[in-house]
Amino acid sequence: MTGNQWGYGKDDGPSAWNKNYPVADGDRQSPIDILPHQARHDPNLGPIVLNYDRCTSINIANNGHSVVVEFEDSDDRSVIQGGPLDNPYRLKQFHFHWGGKGCHGSEHTVEGNGYASELHLVHWNAVKFKTFGEAASTPDGLAVLGIFLETGDEHRWLHMITDALYTVKFKGSVTDFKGFNPKCLLPSSLHYWTYLGSLTTPPLHESVIWIVVKEPMIVSEKQLGKFRTLVFTGEEEDERTRMENNFRPPQLLKGRTVRSSN
Ligand SMILES: NS(=O)(=O)c1ccc(NCc2ccco2)c([N+](=O)[O-])c1
Ligand SMILES: [Zn+2]
């Protein structure tokens, strides 16, 4: 496994990541299993505030690990603030993690139970840092909003994403994706758990303030199935490996406290 060649398979998957990324065995790794009854309710934790009204999506891409929608982050046009955050954090991108048919694919679990998928809205502290890369490698430089996806009725707006997936089937494909505001994906309540953790894929930097929303968004099995039409591999590669089970299992809490908004 050369340098940054990692994946979710038997030989290059999460259990092998510590070879090239020793921080994988660190003290504040993500995801974790959340135990609601052991989370500390903190009355000082205010609501999460999202100001996405002028958000500007740019493109949708298959990076060989997930499908990612990137945003214009040269100013504070789309930020998250409040809750555990001391500054506004700028929206940089969102992406998903999902399982195989009928299997769970979320990264965080709740009392050992996984959801079908998990959406990550990734933000960076542009008050303290000049670039995303700098923020991503510094403690608390990032704030990731995690939303669980549960199967049920069709999600009325998710089709805007799933209808575009055929254009990014292969690793390395990118297509224009303008005018999408991810606020339409959020559940009605933004009550959350929060804890200090890490990126859930290499380089696994311990730079993330995690904000995991309690209420899942509901999507249909058909919508979720469209994510599984993507492949991990490039168009030129002969084997087509279906993109699924691209999630890291829960990591040890190592004494960390999980706080709960009301
Ligand atoms: N699953 S996640 O939200 O924790 C996550 C993981 C990795 C990366 N990126 C990998 C990276 C960061 C710096 C250098 O390379 C991102 N991200 O970039 O939003 C998010
Ligand atoms: Zn993620």
UniProtKB/TrEMBL annotation:
Organism name: Pogonophryne albipinna
Listed transmembrane segments: none
PROSITE patterns: ALPHA_CA_1, ALPHA_CA_2
Catalysed reactions, as listed in the record: hydrogencarbonate + H(+) = CO2 + H2O
Domain (Alpha-carbonic anhydrase): residue spans on this chain: 4-262
GO cellular component, one term: cytoplasm
Stored InterPro entries: CA_dom (IPR001148), CA_dom_sf (IPR036398), Carbonic_anhydrase_a-class (IPR023561), Carbonic_anhydrase_a-class_CS (IPR018338)
Name listed for the protein in its UniProt record: Carbonic anhydrase
Alphabetized Pfam families for the sequence: Carb_anhydrase
Job description of the protein: Reversible hydration of carbon dioxide.
Any GO molecular function: carbonate dehydratase activity
Metal-binding recorded as keyword: yes
Keyword Zinc: yes
Enzyme class, spelled out: lyase
